[in-house]
Design a protein that fits this description.
Blueprint: E1 8-13, H1 19-28, E2 33-34, E3 41-44, E4 49-54, H2 56-64, E5 70-74, H3 75-81, E6 91-95, E7 101-107, E8 123-126, H4 129-139, E9 144-147, E10 163-168, H5 172-176, E11 180-188, E12 190-194, H6 204-220, E13 224-231, H7 235-241, E14 249-253, E15 256-266, H8 272-280, E16 284-290
Length: about 300
């Protein structure tokens, strides 16, 4: 796998739970992905950008060492490998809103739980020994960490450990193995990371443009554009009801001095209850539209 000079480089997961979502996120930013015969290197058709598709464990290293300019990786993976800025580690630019999961402590139901101190002196199996060790230190708990690379949830049943620290999405795997989630160690999702090394001078503007596009995709996730007509006297009440909106845009209605059109970008969910409250405040002709792009 090799890349040409004069091209921006973005590292993403080759396979796994973030692989397809990362590609979809990049395409949502208007970057057209060209999939070729080389599964390790994709090209962007409309910009001088290469996508390096690698193991998730390698993404932080490639970005931290300046081999890639940007990377998309799970915060759980980054936290396990993070070297810190003093060692040239990658900089987290933004959370991307997908790939959410949680790293949690889980134990058999028979283990008495009175908070993290209940783990004192126990064995805890995990694939994230660095993150777990940091959390145990913060909690002031002295426990033995048993490092495993897979099938962590079966460790208590096999008497390898007394508890586990593992990623949890729905909790179904824990339940199937007779375990109960007890405490949160880390909230994780996909994050965009950037190298501390400066890009090639000719690519500086492109890098900034890509970051702004990605920020726009994140900002538009779950956002809605809300339009309505309303009595001018109801503006204060309507502004308080609109979820996560800044100051709305207000324009006069033709031939009406007492009524206005109200437009607002809402960055929180707009539920039916919200519409009912807006109507109760005097709004009419309420429209809620999805936002595809926002910068």
């Amino acid at each position: 796998m090799s890349t040409e000079p004069g091209r921006l480089r973005i590292a993403i997961q080759k396979s796994g739970r973030l692989a397809e979502r990362s590609l979809a996120f990049i395409e949502a930013a208007g970057l057209r992905v060209m999939k070729g015969a080389n599964e390790l290197l994709y090209r962007i058709e409309n910009q001088p950008i290469d996508l390096l598709r690698v193991r998730d464990d390698d993404i932080a290293t490639l970005v931290g060492d300046g081999v890639c300019d940007l990377g998309i990786v799970g915060l759980n993976v980054l936290s396990e490998q993070e070297r810190g800025e003093q060692e040239g580690g990658a900089q987290v630019l933004m959370r991307l809103g997908f790939g959410r999961c949680a790293l949690k402590i889980a134990t058999p139901p028979g283990l008495q739980w009175h908070g993290p101190q209940s783990l004192a002196g126990l064995r805890i199996a995990t694939s994230y020994p660095v993150v777990l060790g940091r959390w145990l230190k913060e909690q002031g708990v002295d426990a033995r960490i048993v490092t495993m690379r897979g099938a962590v949830e079966v460790a208590p049943r096999l008497k390898v450990s007394d508890a586990i620290c593992d990623l949890v999405s729905t909790g179904a795997t824990l339940e199937a193995n007779g375990l109960m989630a007890r405490d949160l160690v880390l909230e994780s999702e996909a994050v965009l990371i950037r190298s501390h090394a400066a890009p090639e001078p000719a690519l500086a503007d492109l890098l900034q443009s890509v970051e702004e596009r990605f920020a726009g995709v994140v900002a538009s996730q779950g956002s809605k554009y809300v339009m309505m007509n309303a009595p001018r006297s109801a503006l204060d009440a309507i502004s308080r009801i609109l979820p996560g909106a800044g100051a709305p845009t207000v324009t006069p209605l033709a031939g009406r001095d007492d009524a206005v059109a109200v437009h607002a970008v809402c960055q929180e969910s707009v539920f039916w209850e919200t519409l009912e409250r807006l109507k109760g405040a005097g709004a009419s002709s309420i429209l809620v539209l999805p936002i595809e792009k926002m910068m």
